[in-house]
Amino acid sequence: MVDWSSLDTVFLDMDGTLLDLHFDSHFWLEHLPKRYAEQFDLHPQETKDQLISMIMAERGTLNWYCTDYWSDRLSVDITQLKAEVGDRIGYRPHVHDFLGGLRAAGLHSVIVTNCHPDPLALKLQRTGLDQHVDMIISSHELGKPKEDREFWSDLSKRVSYQRERTLMVDDSFPVLESAQDAGISQCLAILAPDSTQAAKPHHPDIPGICHFDEILPSLQTRRTLPSA
């Protein structure tokens, strides 16, 4: 599923890949509509329907992920509202073992996330995730989301990597397709990003796993290879 011997760099999504997507799903689908309705004295269900429709209209753009954009548009403090449910931020299964395996194998691990810097700071404070990887890049620093093919060429100005020796792991098929189009040699999908939801169907052209224990044995084998 992954040819570890041919890799130098592993790009990792954060939400839904390393961290449980349940936090974000709960925030955007439940907590934000509830608190927004309370703040502006609106009908809860109508507010939820309207907000979700508004948010979905921005899907795939940088605005979709932008805390500043939604704070301005909705006249609420998104970062503060996220902090209210910060106890829901947590790791997906086997992540610590996987990240430790990447480090033991001598692979360069870089989180490449669409998460805005403000909620990113909250998540790092809650998890200490930054202590387990070599680097973190937010797409907001580059001005375009990972879904944009040009993102990857811009990323190469911040991170030194060879596309033919790089793996991208993400729970978003559009992101993985973008990475493939940009020449990233190996892509791996996370099919169970949200612990409260059933796994997604497999992609016809991208291998997928539910949890990292499915690929840990092959990663650990790399440690014994002369090239490692």
Helices, by number, come to 10
Total beta strands: 6
Give the SSE order as H and E letters.
EHHHHHHEHEHEHEEH
Give the low-confidence spans.
224-228
- In CATH, the architecture of the largest domain is 3-Layer(aba) Sandwich
Into how many domains do the coordinates divide? Answer: 2
3D structure, described in words:
The protein is of the alpha/beta class and 228 residues long. Helix content is 41%, strand content 11%. The chain has a 6-stranded parallel beta sheet, with helices on both faces. It folds into 2 domains: 4-21 and 90-222, Rossmann fold, CATH 3.40.50.1000; 23-87, no CATH class. Helix 7 (117-127) links the parallel strand 2 (108-113) and strand 3 (135-138). The chain is globular, with a radius of gyration of 18 Å. The chain contains 10 helices and 6 strands; from the N terminus they run βααααααβαβαβαββα.
List the helices and strands and how they pair.
Layout: E1 9-12, H1 22-40, H2 44-56, H3 62-65, H4 67-74, H5 78-84, H6 95-104, E2 108-113, H7 117-127, E3 135-138, H8 150-155, E4 166-170, H9 173-181, E5 186-190, E6 208-209, H10 216-222
Parallel strand pairs: 1-2, 1-4, 2-3, 4-5, 5-6
